[in-house]
Write a structure and sequence with these properties.
By secondary structure, the chain is of the alpha+beta class. Helix content is about 45%, strand content about 20%. Strands 1, 2, 3, 4, 5, 6, 7 and 8 form an eight-stranded antiparallel beta sheet that branches. Helix 7 crosses helix 9. The model has no long low-confidence stretch (mean pLDDT about 95).
């Protein structure tokens, strides 16, 4: 049995955290694909796994691990049974938590102990001993609410601007992002790379493909029609979806992977989580 359940964070921290989730796998061995994603903080209550990124490098994840933003679909292999509590870390949350450039962690997994203080292990213990998912979510909310004052207003404003740019159209031009900011073009490029782990042009490409993948999985004809002109042609769309989502449009329609099918249920939280999370 494989189960993936999503939970919305408290309203006042939704600019730091995209979503919480609990991933349960009963069998001892399980392999699947995971779409390109934002940074993740993952607490393995039991079990462990290996993640292979788009560049072909594989990292082992056990205990508490921090995964940077990913540039393409990932393959993962679980040593189960597995129970994992995960946190989707938005760019402003990344800056607040790590004080490091996301670009240095793109397509990488590191033990969380290398980045955080021993408090992260205390949180791990609390999650391991929680009686149910409601207690886990409540604990995570308390942690991020406590840390929220550390978030810099200028970073929150900048990420809001970038997210609005990404959501403005299917394939937003970088020039439109520059027009939204009073910073120099060089400064905007540097800050996006530091917070999101990749350049604006690549970031727009990533979300264009993920949006198209979600539209195919949902069989959303209106959304697909709106996305049609965002790609050079049909072949280009297929290649991009396969790279970022790990499968073809045809399979998304008729034989989507088990994990991806469960991930699509994240859309049920639309209005309670950031649109970039619920729409991709």
């Amino acid at each position: 049995m494989v189960s993936l359940r999503y939970f919305a964070p408290a309203e006042d921290i939704r600019d730091l955290v995209s979503v919480y989730y609990i991933f349960d796998i009963e069998q001892p061995d399980f392999e699947d694909m995971e779409r390109a994603a934002i940074a993740q903080l993952r607490f393995a209550i039991k079990g462990s796994g290996d993640i292979t990124f788009a560049d072909g490098k594989t990292y082992h994840a056990a205990g508490v691990s921090l995964m940077g933003p990913s540039t393409g679909a990932m393959k993962f292999k679980v040593n189960g049974p597995l129970r994992m509590f995960g946190v989707g870390i938005l760019p402003a949350g990344w800056a607040m938590l790590t004080k490091k450039s996301a670009a240095d962690f793109t397509d990488k997994v590191v033990p969380a102990s290398k980045i955080f203080t021993s408090e992260i292990e205390k949180t791990h213990e609390v999650l391991i001993n929680s009686k149910d998912e409601a207690e886990m979510v409540a604990w995570a909310d308390r942690i991020f609410k406590t840390l929220k004052p550390r978030a810099k207003p200028d970073v929150l404003a900048f990420t809001k601007m970038v997210d609005e740019w990404l959501s403005s159209e299917a394939s937003p031009p970088v020039s439109a992002l520059m027009e939204r900011s009073d910073q120099s073009s060089r400064q905007v490029l540097r800050t996006v790379n530091k917070l999101y782990g990749m350049a604006p042009k690549y970031l727009a490409r990533k979300y264009r493909a993920l949006r198209a993948a979600k539209a195919y999985a949902d069989q959303n004809a209106d959304e697909l029609l709106a996305l049609e002109d965002a790609f050079y042609d049909q072949s280009h769309m297929i290649r991009e979806i396969k790279f970022f989502a790990g499968t073809t449009p045809t399979k998304l329609r008729v034989a989507e992977g088990e994990t991806a099918t469960l991930m699509d249920k994240r859309g049920a939280l639309r209005g309670k989580i950031t649109p970039l999370s619920s729409e991709t």
